[in-house]
Write a structure and sequence with these properties.
Helix content is 33%, strand content 24%. By secondary structure, it is an alpha/beta fold.
């Protein structure tokens, strides 16, 4: 039976909490035994809602031991791993500390606030012999896995163009408003756009160069709107956009993609995923409707139980390269869209 400690009970912390409760109900050999959060109100069951339907089911918090200090929690609870759902700038120092204290680490995306901090996490994993996996959840979503398989199998030939978009309301729900502070979150570019940056890195590898335009809407934040072109040697046209300034309750959140191949197209939009073979009738692939959040947590737990390497699905060096791409996008945006080579 795995013993887990959840660190951070904000919006994403609640999303992870709901999945641990589900896994326990399903009889999976895992137990969330403790929760750590600096906000004392969380001990009374205060949950944070955001712009995604992650679930706000009632929770019996009396079954968990609460802490305000992660080190104390690890030392007292005999944990197998900690699940870090913290502000981005804390990912690296907290992950390093947890591994030093003997716990494996599952860490929410993005990996870290910088490639320098990301390397510290990788070094700690190697030094202390602990598993480290970053929650780049799109690598576990069935529609994105279907896209990945289509690219690798070449059943529609080569990719000629790819477009990715995500957008939603401004995240005003974070603890002490950390999401709207550039030095703590990196803004929309590093917090939300990073999903599509990672997807592009996962699907196509590092681009040769990037060109990004961005705009700051919320004073003191990083870029709130970004638009990037990614350049690859084979000439495919790859683009990604993100905008978290759509402040209308009817909108909520949207993620979509369109990937064109020589012999077909895959499109995800308005929550519907369809396959368009050239010259044939389109269809909705028969794939699971399950959330990637559920699959990624289960995968990490199974890896620890089975003694396999969790990071084979999200290699730490790959997650670090995603941060590298984002840093080059930041540099390009700062230089009004100048083409920046990696």
């Amino acid at each position: 039976m795995l013993r887990v400690g959840l660190v951070g009970l904000g919006f994403m912390g609640n999303a992870h909490l709901q999945n641990y409760i589900r896994l326990e109900k399903e009889g999976f050999p895992i137990e969330l035994v403790a929760i750590c959060d600096v906000d004392e109100s969380k001990q009374g069951g205060a949950l944070v809602e955001g712009n995604l339907p992650v679930g706000i089911d009632s929770v019996d918090f009396s079954k968990y031991n609460f802490y305000q200090d992660m080190e104390e929690m690890i030392e007292k609870e005999n944990l197998d791993y900690v699940d870090l759902c913290l502000p981005t700038y804390l990912h690296s120092p907290m992950a390093v500390t947890a591994m030093k204290l003997g716990a494996h680490v599952f860490c929410e995306k993005p990996m870290a606030i910088s490639t320098v901090d990301a390397k510290k996490m990788i070094d700690a994993s190697e030094e202390y012999g602990k598993q480290l996996m970053i929650g780049q959840t799109l690598r576990f979503f069935p529609s994105y896995l279907y896209l990945k398989e289509t690219i690798e199998s070449k059943r529609y030939g080569n990719v000629v163009a790819a477009y990715f978009y995500r957008g939603g309301t401004t995240p005003i729900w974070s603890w002490e408003n950390w999401l709207l502070q550039k030095d703590k979150s990196g803004g929309c570019l590093l917090d939300q756009h990073i999903h599509d940056v990672d997807t592009i890195n996962w699907l196509f590898g590092l681009p040769e160069a990037v060109s990004t335009s961005g705009k700051v809407i919320n004073e003191g934040n990083g870029y709130d709107i970004v638009s990037t072109n990614y350049f690859y040697e084979d000439g495919k046209v790859v683009h990604a956009e993100d905008d978290w300034t759509i402040n209308n309750d009817d909108y909520g959140f949207e993620m979509r993609f369109r990937v064109n191949f020589e012999k077909g197209t895959l499109i995800l939009e308005n929550g519907v995923f369809k396959d368009y073979p050239h010259g044939e009738k389109s269809f909705e692939p028969d794939i699971s409707k399950e959330s990637g959040y559920y699959y990624e947590i289960k995968h990490f737990a199974e890896s620890i139980l089975n003694g396999t390497k969790a990071e084979e699905r999200v290699p730490s060096i790959s997650a670090r390269n995603t941060i590298l791409i984002a840093e080059k996008e930041q540099e390009s945006a700062d230089k009004q869209g100048e083409k920046i080579y990696l």
